[in-house]
Design brief:
11 strands, single chain, about 200 residues
Length: about 200
């Protein structure tokens, strides 16, 4: 469990609610590595999401400013099927909307600790099942890199360097890596830079 790493976004226009959820997530994460980001609106999250699409779990309020949580989730689902979406709201009439975006769960405020932890455990299990990994052969070893950690590939002559949390110089051919990655990347060509 100690090697689990998650990036979690909390999006809620109530600062008190966002801080409360963040506290519960931190308690759940005591044996995990978790990066938590909070956003006061759907628009603030979407602005950041344009640059950072590597979130694992989204904890979303539904009723927020101009853009609501369901509309935001629909926009995210257009290019990200693996992120785990959990709605946290005070209104039960939106439950049916959660099915349209394959939401993992729907929690009613005020959220109980055990409920949130149980949902986070389920999200964690789903992420592990969906995890795609790339085997990279280097001169000395074989490195396993989760596909979601890959930022881009550099190609120099016959060598490919895969850039992620760590950079791995691989002896693999670009064409073989391309075949392995196409199911995990919607725009693979944009990730490759030829030098």
């Amino acid at each position: 469990m100690a090697n689990e790493t998650y990036k979690i976004a909390i999006c809620d226009d109530s600062q008190a609610d966002a801080e409360y959820i963040a506290t519960l997530v931190k308690e759940w994460a005591k044996d995990r590595i978790v990066k938590i980001r909070t956003y006061p609106s759907a628009e603030a999250f979407m602005f950041n999401y344009a640059e950072e699409k590597d979130f694992d779990i989204l904890l979303l309020d539904i009723e927020m400013g101009k853009m609501d949580g369901v509309t935001m989730a629909k926009a995210i689902r257009q290019d990200n099927e693996s992120v785990q979406i959990v709605f946290i709201t005070g209104y039960s009439e939106y439950i049916a909307d959660g099915y349209d975006v394959a939401a993992l769960h729907y929690l009613i405020k005020p959220v109980k600790t055990e409920q949130l932890w149980s949902v986070l455990d389920r999200a964690s299990e789903r992420l592990k099942k969906n995890e795609k990994e790339l085997l990279l052969k280097t001169a000395d070893e074989t490195v396993v890199m989760p596909v979601r950690e890959i930022r881009y590939l550099d190609v120099q002559q016959n060598y490919v360097t895969v850039h992620g949390k760590v950079d791995v110089p691989s002896n693999g051919r670009l064409e073989n890596l391309r075949k392995s990655l196409t199911s995990g990347f919607s725009a693979l060509d944009g990730l490759i830079s030829l030098i």
